[in-house]
Specification:
Order of helices and strands: HHHHHHH
Number of domains: 1
Distance between the termini: 61 Å
Strand content: under 5%
Structural class: mainly alpha
Shape: globular
Largest sheet: none
Radius of gyration: 20 Å
Number of strands: 0
Length: about 150
């Protein structure tokens, strides 16, 4: 009698048929977070700099214009570098500092409510992950390192 091969349904739910790649996952995370913060937050601050400069929160007591300039640096320059995978860990660190300041000092470490910092907290988690893990194999950093050899 021939033995019939049965596939256990739980094995299918493990999604083992989808190849796993930490490098591709880090690429997706870098692009997702870097481009989202750049396009949804950084560009608005950059293009509206003149209007926002006088009223921007000043948690570091360096003036509203200085605080806005640092936010633009983080959300435009560091975010673009992060998405490209250029100086990845340093770019992630800049964004960790900016989002940490926003969450702790602007939103008072409060997650929900009228002035809650849930979005800053979620971005912060992703940027901390990228700072700790690095950008992976799909970065300009890795391509430049190979070409420098």
């Amino acid at each position: 009698m021939a033995r019939v091969h049965s596939t256990h349904p739980m094995k299918f739910l493990q999604l083992g048929f989808i190849p796993s790649s930490a490098g591709v996952a880090l690429l997706v995370l870098r692009l997702w977070l870097g481009l989202t913060i750049l396009l949804n937050h950084g560009l608005a601050k950059l293009t509206g700099f003149g209007e926002m400069a006088g009223e921007f929160p000043d948690p570091l007591h360096i003036g509203s214009t200085g605080s806005l300039a640092l936010a633009v640096l983080a959300e435009v320059v560091a975010a673009a570098f992060l998405a490209l995978g250029l100086c990845t860990r340093f770019a992630a660190l800049v964004l960790v500092i900016e989002l940490g300041v926003a969450f702790c000092f602007v939103h008072g470490c409060v997650l929900s409510g009228a002035h809650g910092g849930e979005l800053a907290f979620i971005y912060l988690a992703g940027f901390v992950t990228l700072f700790l893990a690095g950008g992976g194999c799909c970065t300009l950093d890795s391509k430049l390192a190979v070409s420098a050899k």
